[in-house]
């Protein structure tokens, strides 16, 4: 991989991390609104927590790498 | 070199780097799976003992510490990406930001939430199911945050000595994945403690 490609990939990964963070914070706002307007509905909040966790596991913890040959060093 | 040492070195050479990377990851994820059973059990005990109620906690403080932890995960991810591209400057600033935010989270929970909480843990003669669950859940989680901060500080120190690079980043990756796991746990604990169900009992700070 050329240094330009590497730089582009790095920027793409930084941007993905930022988009995921924004999504996570928006979901937290939905959490709070659910507590206020839906009287803390357990099921809605649980589904929101699952979406939050899925985003972190997929994009930050890279669970896909567990089943791939990526990073063989 | 002893026979055992030679055999160990030989076995180490035989494992292909890609296989070793997969084994490392699998080992880490199995550890996290065992941790998730423990945290899952604690979460179930909250629903068994509190049902559809919760104590009056400071929701603004809860949201603030949650956002702090989410932002720390963002910086941890940034540190991992940086070291994999040999961007050492970004790596060091991101690791320091992650550690700082982790400490801020601990101050928020242990230094602010605990003293101002309307419920307290049980004492001899006075039983408090709300206090016990609240302090147990936040306490066990805070211990994991503290251990994550210590691990990240060790990673920072090792990196300063030149230990990590794009071709040797497993230590950073493992520490960062552990940090994200602690974040995932809080994503479930926060609504379970602060938001789910009907608030009962005295208001926070009262």
For this entry, give a set of tags:
heterodimer, A: 73 residues, mainly alpha, 2 helices, 74% helix, 0% strand, elongated, B: 206 residues, Four Helix Bundle (Hemerythrin (Met), subunit A), 6 helices
Word description of this protein:
The complex is a heterodimer of chains A (73) and B (206). By secondary structure, chain A is mainly alpha-helical. Chain A is built from 2 helices and no strands. Chain A has helices at residues 3-37, 42-60. In chain A, helix 1 (3-37) packs antiparallel against helix 2 (42-60). The longest helix of chain A has 35 residues, at 3-37. By secondary structure, chain B is mainly alpha-helical. Chain B has one domain (33-200): Cytochrome c oxidase, subunit III, four-helix bundle (Four Helix Bundle (Hemerythrin (Met), subunit A)). Chain B has 6 helices and 2 strands. Chain B has helices spanning 3-14, 17-50, 59-84, 88-116, 129-160, 170-195; strands spanning 53-55, 198-200. The mean pLDDT of chain B is 91. The A-B interface holds A 6-7, 9-10, 13-14, 17-18, 20-21, 24-25, 28, 31-32, 34-35, 39-42, 45-46, 48-49, 52-53, 56-57, 59-63, 65-66, 69-73 and B 16-18, 20-22, 25-26, 29, 47, 52, 54, 59, 63, 66-67, 70-71, 73-74, 76-78, 81-82, 85, 87, 166-170, 173, 176-177, 180-181, 183-184, 187-188, 190-191, 194-198.
């Amino acid at each position: 991989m050329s240094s330009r490609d590497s730089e582009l990939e790095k920027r793409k990964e930084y941007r993905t991390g930022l988009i995921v963070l924004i999504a996570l914070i928006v979901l937290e706002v939905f959490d709070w609104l659910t507590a206020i307007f839906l009287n803390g509905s357990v099921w809605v909040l649980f589904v929101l927590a699952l979406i939050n966790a899925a985003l972190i596991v997929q994009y930050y913890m890279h669970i896909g790498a567990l089943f791939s040959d990526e990073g063989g060093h | 070199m002893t026979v055992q040492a030679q055999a160990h070195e030989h076995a180490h050479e035989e494992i292909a780097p890609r296989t070793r990377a997969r084994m490392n990851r699998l080992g880490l994820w199995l550890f996290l799976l065992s941790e998730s059973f423990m945290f899952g059990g604690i979460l179930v005990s909250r629903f068994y003992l509190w049902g559809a109620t919760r104590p009056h906690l400071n929701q603004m403080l809860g949201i603030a510490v949650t956002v702090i932890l989410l932002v720390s995960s963002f910086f941890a991810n940034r540190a991992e990406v940086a070291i994999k591209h040999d961007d050492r400057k970004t790596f060091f600033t991101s690791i320091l930001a992650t550690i700082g935010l982790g400490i801020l989270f601990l101050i928020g929970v242990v230094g602010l939430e605990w003293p101002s909480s309307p419920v307290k843990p049980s004492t001899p003669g006075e039983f408090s199911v709300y206090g016990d669950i609240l302090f147990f859940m936040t306490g066990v989680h805070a211990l994991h945050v503290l251990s994550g901060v210590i691990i990240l500080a060790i990673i920072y120190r090792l990196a300063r000595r030149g230990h990590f690079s794009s071709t040797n980043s497993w230590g950073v990756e493992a520490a960062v994945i552990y940090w994200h796991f602690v974040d995932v746990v809080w994503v479930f604990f926060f609504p379970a403690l602060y938001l789910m169900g009907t608030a009962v009992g005295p208001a926070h700070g009262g």
